[in-house]
Every structure is written in structure tokens, then in C-alpha cells.
Write the C-alpha cells for this entry.
Amino acid sequence: MPFMPVKFNLQKRVKLAQGLWMIYWLSVIVGILLFSLGIFFKIELRKRSEMMDNNESHLVPNLLILVGLLACGVNAFGGKVCHDSLDPIKFAKWKPMLKPFLLLCCGFNALLLLTALLCFLMQFAVYLTLAEGLKNSIKFYKDTDTPGRCFMKRTLDLTQIEFRCCGNNNFRDWFEVQWISNRYLDMSNDLVKDRVLSNVEGKYLMDSVPFSCCNPGSPRPCIQHHLTNNSAHYDYDHRIEELNIWTRGCREALFSYFSSMMTSIGVLIIATIILESVDMAGLKYLTTALETMEDPENPECESDGWLLEKGVKETFGDLLAKLKTLGKTNQVVEGGDSVSIL
Amino acid sequence: MALLKIKFTQQRRVHLAQGLWLLSWMAVMWGGVIFCLGVYLKTELLRRAEVMDNTEIHVVPNILMMVGLASIGTNWVASRVCQDSLDPTRFPRWKVPLLAWFAQLLYLCPLSLYCQVGLRNGIRFYKDTDVPGRCFQKETIDRLQMEFRCCGNNNFKDWFEVQWVSNRYLDFTSKDVKDRIRSNVDNRYLLDGVPFSCCNPTSPRPCLRYHLTDNNAHFNYDYQSEELNLYSRGCRQALTDYYMELMNSTGPGVLSVILIQSLTMGLRYLQTAVETAMVLEDPEGDSEGYLLEKGVKETIEDLKINALTMLKFGQVDPNAAEGSSEVADAEKDEKDAPPSPAS
């Protein structure tokens, strides 16, 4: 009893071939889309790699690029097979390759599933690298004269302006690091000496933030220094003031950006899996319909198409039996040897 | 002696018609592109409307849109002409539109329109975040300065001349504030400081934005030689550069002019070749195509005579109306006998 049989006449076969050809070319376009999304993701990770301590994992974008290219190739081949399917001479060329091709499609679907899973799971890795990377970025903000870190200030300033965030968790992270280089501190000044001596590590700490934390939407010109001192500014209460500087931390801002990107890519991959499955089912129907024609010379005759030749349980049983015999052939050889020795 | 005569067989005429048809459809698409460019430029200008100095700059996108639409229309007509040219029954109805077509050979290319842009009153109203209608001026200017990397109208010193801190945030009991207010006639709180949006992130030093002219206020600071601290470019220059670049990218408009000219020449050849073939009573046979029936000098002479006779019609004496109408009829017959140079 074939699984899900459908009767086909010439009209239906032609329609199936045409429809399937269009769906295959749609899948090629989706493959190109996946490829370009992979490249875009890779570029974004590279752009922000300084915020991630330069050790972010490029596994997901690389997989996306690979999957995109594979999708283009596999679906283009499928489209070509559909195009040739109604011409018996051309189709005879492709016949022997069809079974391996369908197995390849199954494997490709499994790879897509793995990629989708990674898209969702790797978000945790991104979060952790961001936390570590931003902490170091804030620490190295002042090192504009150290080779390898001289652009950290600019990158962090531009990131805070673009993503509208301040600090790692919030703006108070800036109070815990020295973000003004010693080159610009007058060490002979009493105030400076007091601040430097006020902590164990001799850091010049202050309750101020860089200008990139300022919120342009504030009605008041930006207050960046002496943030916790209410009397330093007229009509200012640091507990109530909300619009002056960005309150969101950059880790949260960057993470939500990357997470939304990865989630939408994951959803697209799941849609691609469904599309590929439809492709495979259509191709199986088409090939079985063409093979079961009683009279190959007469294109008008009717034929049957199905997804599986026997039912689902029987197909699985057959597969398991095949696997067992594969294992048993090894055992038989050993037994045979022992018999021959005897 | 016709100008630039070329022999046309039926085959050649067909090829010419097909090639021109293709070219005219390309020109239609190009007209569409120019129209879209005009729309894009207009939306960009509208986005920045608050900080634009004048409205004359809107002429450029308006002209681009008109040119785009006109190009689409006329080139569509040209493609229809090409389609009908090889059918002797349908070609004659395009005679008059073609004459009109040849008349608009010169497109005005609005490439070099000098425009003045600047921060219209933007800096003055920066502090008015509590005045309805101006409360977003601060945010607009801040975002503009950060996005275009500029400070002030011509440079950062423009900020020294306006009060950009609102009175709501000034402590009028403080001596410093009272001194500054009394230091000028208009009682404005002026300071040698700039808003945070002028800060340049590429500066190696954390941004200094107050007491900019006072070297002693900051350690290791020299007001004259400090370059990277703030943006040195004025926003007028930054905006002008941006829009000039945007409008120069319509430089491919030159390409469209070349396309139009070649299309015009091709159409002229096609028209004359088909008409000559029809005159010779042999639509399938060979014919000659030309740009002008007589030489350039003779054509100009003919045009002058035509223009003078048209003026003379206006000057006819009402007393001699009958006599002159006879003269006019005789002249008209004279004119019709030789084939007119323009057709």
C-alpha cells in the first residue's frame, strides 16, 4: 500500500512539473537571500568585534553562507530536472541520479535544522561575549595612545551614540573606571591628587560620564560631570532626572539588536525547511508518476504517484533491516574465516 | 543637396525602427529613474526642512521630476512612432506630434544650481525647549550636528554669540551668572562653551566643551592649536556638501541628453526614409533618409522667409485688406509648391 497515492493524467503531470519548477526557482532566490543574510551578519559581527573582545564566534554566519550556496545549487539542479521531466529522452539522463539527490535533500534539510537551532542557541554566547567585551572596552577607553587600542574610544563613543546607551549595565559603570588618560591630568593639582589617593589602585575616579552618553532629547543642555551632586547644578536632582543621559546599558542594547537579527534569520531558515520539504515531496510525486507510466510511448496515459512505496512503518522496517544486514555482513565474514580455518 | 543622406533598404528601415523602439523604451525607463531621483531628493530636503535656509533649493527636485515625467511621455510617443512607422496606413498620423517632438531638443539640465543652505535660526531657538513649535529644535540640531559631524553655522564660535542655555536652568543668584548677563547689552547668558553634539569622538582626549578660549581652565590645552576636540566644519558647509553630492549624482542626466539626441537623429532618419518611400509609391523599396532636405544654409534661409511672411500677415493694412488677401493667397500657393523644409 503506497503512502499517500495520487492519480496523475497528462494534464496533472504537466501542471505539477510547471508548478514545481517555479517553486524550485523561488527556493533558489531564498537560498540567495540566506547567503546575503549570512554575509550581512558576518559584517555586523566584524564591525562590533571590538565590543566583543575580538573573540566572537563566526560559526553561525559561516554556516549561513554555506547553507545559502548549497540551497542555490540543490534547488537549481531540482529546477533543471523538473524542466526536463516532461521530455522522456532528457529525463532518462536524470533518472539514475534522483534517488541520491533526494537523500542529499534530506541531509540538507537536517543541516538547515541544525543551523536554525544554532541561531537560537548562540544568542547566549553573544550575550556573554558582549558582557566581557564591553567591560574591557570601558576599561580601555582612555588608552588612545596604546597601539591596538587607540580606536577604542572612538568605537565606544560611536556605539553609545548609535545605540543610545551608556556603560555596560548602566551609566554608573563609568564611575568605576578611570576614563581620562593621565596625559590630560594635572598631577600637581590638589583636587586631582585627592581623587587619585582616594582609592587603592590610584585611579582618577569621578562621577562623570563621556559626552556620548548624552541624550539629545533632553530639554536641558547635557550635564555630564558631577552627576551625583545635586548642588553642583541648578534645579537638578539626580534621582528624578531621566532624560539627561541614556539610562539603558550598552550590553542590553547591543544584545537586543543581535538577538532580533538572529531570531528573524532563524525564522527564515524554518520557512526554508518547510519550502524544501514541499520541493522534495513534489519531486517524489513527479518522478514516481513518470516511472509508473504503463506505456512510456504514450504520454497521454494515466499513472500513479506516491510519497513512499510502502507504508511508513514498513519503510522504516525495511531501513532497519538494511542497517542490520550491513552490520551482519561484517560478522558473516568473521564467521566464514573461522570456519575456513577450521 | 540634402544634409547627411543615407540610403535605406526595407531591411535597414525595419532594423532602424526596431533599434529606435528599443532605445526609446530605454529612454522611458531612464525618465522613470530621473523622476524617482527627484522624488528622493525632495523627501531628503523635506526631512531637513527645519534647518534649511531657503525654499529655492526645492526647484532642483521639482525640475528633475518634471524632466522625468516629460521624458517618459515623449519617449513613449517615440516608441509608438517606431512601432507604426513600417505600416503606411498608420504612420501619417504621427507627422504633427513628430514636429513638436523635434522642437524640444534642448532639455534644461538643472545640474549646477547654486544653493544656499544653512541653519535657519536653528541655533537661536536651541534653548526654547519649552516653547510650542520650537521644542524639538534642540534635538534636531543635536542630531544634525552628530550625523553631519559639524558644529554651528560656519564654525563652533557661532555658539558663543547666542544664549543656548535656557533661563530655567540658570541660577540667577549666582555671581558668575549675573556677571555674564550684565556683560552684554541684550542681557543674554553668553559663554565660551558649546553643546555636547559638537564633540568629535575621534579626539584622543575626553571632550572639552566649556571655557574653550581659556587655556588655563584645562591642563595641557591650547585653544589655538586644538583641532580634534570639536568638529571644525560648519553645518552650512556640511549640508551644502551633502546636497551637492546628491545632486551631482544626477550627472547621469548628461547620459540621458546623449540618449535623447541619438534617438532624435534616428527618428528623423526613419521619418524621412519612410516618407520618401511612400512618395515613391513603393513602400517596400529603397529610399533615402536625411537630416535636412536642403543644406544647413538653405534651410535657415527658408525658415527666415517663413518667419518674415508670418510677421507680414500681422502687418497687413486694413484698407488694402482685399488686395492683400489676394497677395496672401498667391504667397501661400508659392509656399506650398516646393516641399516645406521642415517636413
